[in-house]
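Example 5.3 — Protein kinase
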Amino acid sequence: MDLVRKLTRIYGLGLCCGLWSKAEVIQWCDKLIEASDSPPYEIIEISLMSKAKIDDIEGKLFEFSSTVDEEYTVKLTLSVIHEKLKKHELTIEESIKCTTRLLVNRGGIGRRNTLNCIV
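Solution (predicted structure tokens):
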């Protein structure tokens, strides 16, 4: 469950900074549900939010992963941005935009509340 919470936080951060779209996050939740014998209720709830606002989905993602180490997951999210850049899945401009949004929004790394995204 701890791994699911960490991944949920990473997907929340990625959604907020533009690394993943709402559809990609919901698709990840769907895959997690398919692969699990008893998926967390919160993940099921998120997978059903295709018509919800991004802010609402972010809120659910962060609510479920509120106990996860923020600094660690920010570093992992930065690693994902770097990997996508190396694989040419992101342009340099997109990676700078994602990194800037992530770091500006997480300016208080110790803060564990919901993000206010810059869009």
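Remark. Confidence is low (pLDDT under 50) at residues 109-119.
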